């Protein structure tokens, strides 16, 4: 949570992207997380709902126990939720979200993998990179748990490995910004 707060606080003055966040949390806590992020950062942060239109400058948190994907219809971007099987023992899973972003945004997709355990995000990172998009990872020194980001770094799917405090400087307005934490 602290890494996510630090990043969003650093970015809030220029937030023009659509931000989608997948955090491995139970459903009872994701709405609370969205509210906490909103209060702490001053950004509009909400728990995503199926069919929700993604708006630039807003933050959407995947609800617990639901995979969040993004679809594009008539030039607009929408949240799609499902309860398909867990991926990497997770639901929501970053790989599911990243796969949809690779498909919908292609070379404009930008993913950020912050501190966390496991390897969720690895397959999706490779898909984003294969589609011409970019993946940035938090470096080991500023990570509480150098797990998910380590796996992605070791795979070669990461274009930039950056200290937490500098990640937002690497981000340009590319359409959609995604996080795994």
Give an overview of the whole structure.
The protein is α/β, with parallel strands linked by helices and 181 residues long. The protein contains five helices and nine strands. The chain has helices at residues 2-11, 27-41, 94-105, 122-130, 148-155, and strands spanning 18-22, 44-47, 58-61, 67-73, 76-82, 109-113, 134-138, 160-162, 176-180. A seven-stranded parallel sheet has the order 2-3-1-9-6-7-8, with helices on both faces. The radius of gyration is 14 Å and the shape is globular. The mean pLDDT is 90.
Topology:
Blueprint: H1 2-11, E1 18-22, H2 27-41, E2 44-47, E3 58-61, E4 67-73, E5 76-82, H3 94-105, E6 109-113, H4 122-130, E7 134-138, H5 148-155, E8 160-162, E9 176-180
Parallel strand pairs: 1-3, 1-9, 2-3, 6-7, 6-9, 7-8
Antiparallel strand pairs: 4-5
Helix pairs in contact: 3-4
Percent of residues in β-strands: 15-25%
What is the number of helices? 5
Order of helices and strands: HEHEEEEHEHEHEE
The amount of helix comes to 25-40%
**Strand element count:** 9
Question: Main β-sheet, in a few words?
Answer: 7 strands, parallel
Report the average pLDDT across residues.
90
Separation, N- and C-terminal Cα atoms: 8 Å
Shape, please? Answer: globular
Overall structural class, as computed from helix and strand content, comes to: alpha/beta
Given as residue ranges, the uncertain stretches (5+ residues, pLDDT < 50) are none
Overall radius of gyration? 14 Å
Query: In what order do the strands lie side by side in the largest sheet?
Result: 2-3-1-9-6-7-8
